[in-house]
Structures are given as C-alpha cells and as structure tokens.
Amino acid sequence: MLLSFVIPCYHSSATLPGVVHEIEETVTADGRYDYEVILVNDNPPDDTWRTIQALCAENSRVRGVSMSRNFGQHPALMAGYRLARGEIVVSLDDDGQNPPREMFRLIDALDDETDLAYAIYQKKKHAAWRNWGSKLNDWTACWLIGKPKGLYLASYNAAKRFVVDEIIRYQGPYPYVDGLAIRSTSRVRNVPVDHMPREEGRSGYSMGKLVSVWLNCFTSFSVKPLRLAAFAGLFFAMLGFLMAVVVIVQKLVLGDVGSVGWSSLMCVLLVVGGLIMALLGILGEYLGRLYLSVSAAPQYIVHERCNLPPEAEP
Q1: Which residue has the higher pLDDT, 63 or 174?
Q2: DSSP for 75-120, written as a single string
Q3: Which of 82, 85, 252, 260 minimizes the number of CB atoms within 10 Å of its CB?
Q4: C-alpha closest to that of 120 among 85, 150, 89
Q5: pLDDT the model gives residue 9
C-alpha cells in the first residue's frame, strides 16, 4: 500500500530536509508501506525551492511543485492532494513541529470506523495569539460547517483515499480543506501526538493570513451569516418601532419634550449605522467571492515541477 505525504512549504529550507529524512526513516523502519513525499513550494522569498530540488535529486520518491506566487497553505494542500496517489494521504507541516515519527498513530487509527484522523496535542508549542485564533476558528467551524464539538482540527492528519478525492472535487478559488474534509465524512476522530517546539524561524502564518483562512471558513460553507444579518436587521427594526411608540406616548402625555435625548439618539444612530455597514460588508464578501468563483479564478498556478512527468498536472 502506498502512503502519500503532502507538505506545504514556506520559509523551510532549514527544517525541510530533516522532516523528509525522518519520513523516509520512519516508513522504512516500519516496513509495511511504500511511500511518496509531495512538497509544494508556496513561493517564499528564499531558497526553499532549491532545497526541494536537492531532496528530489536524492530520492525519486520525493516530488516537488512550485507555485507562481504565494497562494496560501490550503491551495498548496489542494495542489499536493491532486498529485497524491496513495491509498492513505498524510498532511503535515514543514517546520518539524509535527514529528513524522508519530505518523503511525494517525495511520493506524484509520479503521472501519474512522476515515479521517486529526492529531491533537497535549500541549501546543504555538504563541498565545495563535492558540486564541485556533479557538475562534474552532467555534466558527462548529457553528458553520457542523464540526463535532470537541474535535480538534490540526494540520497534521491522515485521510483515506476517498476523502481526498472528495476534497479535490472543489474547484472554487477559496478552498478550506478542513471544511471540505468534514463535509466528506462524519467518521472523524482525534489521536494524541506530540507537538514539538519550532526549531528555527517563525510561523509563516501572519495575522492577515489567519483572518483570510477564517473568512474562507466563514463564507464558503454556510449561509448562516446572511441569516444572522437578516435577524439582526429585523431585531433593530422592531427596536426602532418600539422606540417610536415610546416617543409618541411621551409626546401625548408629557407634551413637547424638546431636545431631550439628543445624545442617546446619536448613539443609537451610530450603533445602527455601524451594524448596517458591517452587514453590508458580509453581503459584499459573499458577492465578491461569488464573482471570483464565476469568473474561474484559479486556486493556484504551478510554475515549476520536479520528479513529475508532464502528464501529472495538479
């Protein structure tokens, strides 16, 4: 049976060789599987692609593609999945924080009752703001895409072939891989693995990139935000109607109330106006993404390849 390892690569020229060599040693020592490693270079401004080319030259089982620009982790995963041929596909990071020696905890968890296994860490070695962002993303995924409560979505995971085939059916320009995976199967579980501290450098995920991933989850799999906007509009319309009734009653009972309440009225106008602008922003986000999807904006563009035949088009 063939294992495919898909690794998005960004600023990882120092750590990537160690990750690939540990994959080779772990699979060889186990002896049950053949393997391939697919390295997707997300066009960082360093020599990561040259490192990938060197790894491909060392081992014919290592394959590489390089993007024409930085598209992000999830489009890079989609490119790797389309090249993967294995019956089991393992996704992991390029920085060594997902130790490859733990892979068989995930792989062996794929049984008759489990199609997708996510790593869960006893103690995450991420910065506090990354952990906070993960909690926000977790809450959003539960609300919008029906993620089981308590299921942790990690970048280190193993999936059966049919799950990956369902994921790559998505052709839109805003892939959110975890949402596509959860939509493919409900037979998902967490498996405890170790999480290692970063050996070198820092995360390629800036706050802007995390917000972009969150927006993909927020707008790509549900119309609940639009329904929330409709309910919020109805709520404030009813509130405004009640306030109008109160003003009329005060006028009839107390007579001319003059300019009393001007400050509170301005506050209400600012709150309602801000809410309207926010809801219009949500609607605009949906319309913009719909326009880009209809205009066939690409998920990614491959610029170079290594150890891949010409017909292997991701």
Answers
A1: 63
A2: HHHHHHHHH---SEEEE--SSSSS-GGGHHHHHTT-STT-SEEEEE
A3: 252
A4: 150
A5: 94
